[in-house]
Design goal:
Low-confidence stretches: 1-30
Number of domains: 2
CATH class of the largest domain: Alpha Beta
Radius of gyration: 23 Å
Strand content: 15-25%
Number of helices: 20
Helix content: 40-55%
Shape: globular
Oligomer: single chain
CATH topology of the largest domain: Rossmann fold
CATH architecture of the largest domain: 3-Layer(aba) Sandwich
Bound molecules: adenosine-5'-triphosphate, glutathione, magnesium ion
Number of strands: 20
Structural class: alpha+beta
Length: 503
């Protein structure tokens, strides 16, 4: 189709959308808000390249798989053609519980007895968690020198909905380390606004919420940097060897430069080779003192060899504000999430806060321990008998780690009598209703997909000693994936960036 033909189609579709409707007759329970567009092949062919150009213009970018460490050739980060519908009450609920979750994570991270008892059996069988825990114990033994705490997390939810019932906000998990895409999502709204405008949906375009998590995240880092109290010190982003998501990180970094806070990027390898602790365990690297270490790495076993573990230990022993510190990373494990759902646990951790407890608990779905006890035996048997009901989760981050269906059954059958099972938790599967959308991804054919979405809310808090200086939510991230993928986010190459269309 030529540009002139395209514009003609577009103008016609505004005057009379029905005239261009395709014949596809898929019916989905989710709103038919964009039905006039979704089934109109010509309109889709016309608008998809416009959307891609808008993403490139707005900076919704990722480096390529082939060249992950250079920006000479980059591509757009995957995103939906159209915003997905999100209920205003569920969005509000997710925002209103975020400060409670910040408090909860902070409490857990300070509660050694809770972390010790909750992770006791897990660390006997899971080497990665055990290594983290070893560092945690070592730092405690030596005495924590860090006086300022900075938490940046993202609590993720899906909208659970059995047919005909109202959807409920159910937490998938909370990410306490390297919670990503706050930068690119800040730029995705403008892309969707443009797409809707081009489609003649001016009113809908004007309703898209502004959203800027990278700014909120940077404000938290800036506050921690300020409280550290040395204006010569830098913020260090601890980054991976393979840095495909650098633009997302740059969004946060550039917000800091705007505040005249200097940022450096280093890998574990650099820390191992060049970092040292000076007076009062101040952290130095390449002649700079580091006030804040912001981890965008360090949450998967493959990030660590012997030297990188040593580098991690050095960072944790330092006075620098680690985001997260090792205790807060442990507070984000799946095992802790499961323990939090046990009756009475929230009440113990947040005494005198019954409203916060109720708000938090309302977002939990069934979470089950696989400890070597009667209850664990019962859950293993139940999951083997009905694997479609559950998700089996190891203590891992980064997407693509969970087990479902036949694989879940197979693994549980193999380890059901071994303590290895305690390295996993079991969770009820959340069942959102699918909606139709186009997932735009470089080098992929343009096709309509049945999709489900996941909403994340960013939370930021800063504590100095006992005083909570900052506790806020910092915006949202909506990600959408085709229903055939049970697991995986954007970084894992499964989900794409989206924008909520709130109704
Ligand atoms: N209980 C559940 N019901 C349905 N889907 C789930 C459930 N738990 C996880 N998932 C799916 O699996 C994905 C990964 O799960 P989860 O976030 O727990 O793992 P992760 O490895 O920590 O991922 P990430 O690094 O993206 O946070 C989720 O984004 C979601 O799509
Ligand atoms: N290291 C990369 C990826 C980090 C990452 O995968 N973070 C997880 C939490 S541990 C996440 O937020 N994933 C969201 C997604 O991939 O959709 C980065 O810093 O951007
Ligand atoms: Mg995670």
């Amino acid at each position: 189709m030529t540009l002139v033909e395209g514009v003609w189609y577009f103008l016609e579709s505004i005057k009379n959308p029905e005239s261009l409707l395709g014949t596809a007759s898929l019916s989905f329970a989710m709103t038919a808000l964009w039905d006039d567009i979704l089934h109109n092949d010509q309109l889709i062919q016309y608008v998809a390249p416009i959307a891609v150009d808008a993403a490139l213009l707005e900076g919704v970018l990722m480096r390529t798989k082939d060249d992950p460490n250079a920006s000479d050739v980059v591509n757009y980060a995957p995103f939906t053609l159209l915003p997905s519908v999100v209920s205003s009450s569920l969005l509000e609920q997710a925002y209103s519980v975020q400060q409670d979750f910040n408090l909860l994570v902070d409490e857990v991270s300070q509660n050694t007895a809770f972390l010790e008892s909750t992770l006791a059996s897990t660390i006997k069988v899971d080497d990665f968690t055990a290594q983290l825990f070893k560092i945690y114990r070592q730092v405690l033994k030596e005495g924590v020198t860090q006086t300022v705490v900075l938490g940046i997390n993202r609590s993720d939810y899906m909208f659970d909905q059995e047919t005909n019932s109202t959807p409920a906000l159910k937490q998938v998990e909370i990410n306490t380390i390297a919670a990503s895409f706050g930068g690119l999502t800040s730029r995705t709204t403008a892309v969707h606004r443009h797409v809707l405008n081009v489609l003649g949906k001016f009113t809908e375009a004007s309703k898209l919420l502004t959203n800027n998590p990278s700014k909120g995240i940077a404000m938290g880092i800036a506050k921690a940097w300020e409280l550290y109290g040395s204006d010569r010190a830098v913020v260090m982003f601890l980054v991976e060897e393979t840095q495909r998501n650098i633009f997302d990180q740059r969004c946060v970094e550039n917000e800091l430069w705007k505040r005249n806070i200097r940022v450096i990027r280093r890998r574990f390898k650099d820390v191992f080779e060049k970092a040292s602790l000076g007076n009062d365990k101040r952290l130095h690297i390449d002649g700079e003192e580091v006030a804040v270490v912001y981890y965008r790495e360090g949450y998967v076993p493959k990030s660590y060899n012997k030297q990188n573990w040593e580098a991690r230990l050095l960072l944790e022993r330092s006075r620098a504000v680690k985001c997260p510190d090792i205790a807060t990373q442990l507070a984000g494990t799946k095992k802790v999430q499961q323990e939090l759902s046990q009756p009475g646990t929230l009440e113990k951790l947040l005494p005198n806060k019954p409203e916060a407890v109720a708000r938090i608990r309302a977002t939990f779905t069934g979470l089950y321990s696989l400890e070597m006890d009667e209850e664990g035996d019962k859950m293993v048997a139940m999951a083997i008998a009905d694997p479609e009901r559950f998700v089996l989760k190891p203590q891992r981050e980064g997407g693509g780690n969970n087990l479902y269906g036949g694989e879940l059954k197979q693994v549980l059958e193999k380890i059901k009598d071994s303590p290895e099972r305690t390295s996993y938790i079991l969770m009820d599967k959340i069942r959102p209703l699918p909606a139709l959308n186009y997932l735009l991804r470089a080098h992929s054919p343009l096709k309509i997909s049945e999709c489900v979405s996941e909403l994340g809310i960013f939370g930021v808090y800063v504590r100095q000693g006992k005083d909570l200086i900052m506790n806020k939510h910092a915006g949202h991230l909506l990600r959408t994936k085709a229903v055939e993928h049970a697991d995986g986010g954007v970084a894992a190459g499964v989900a794409v960036l989206d924008t909520p269309y709130v109704i």
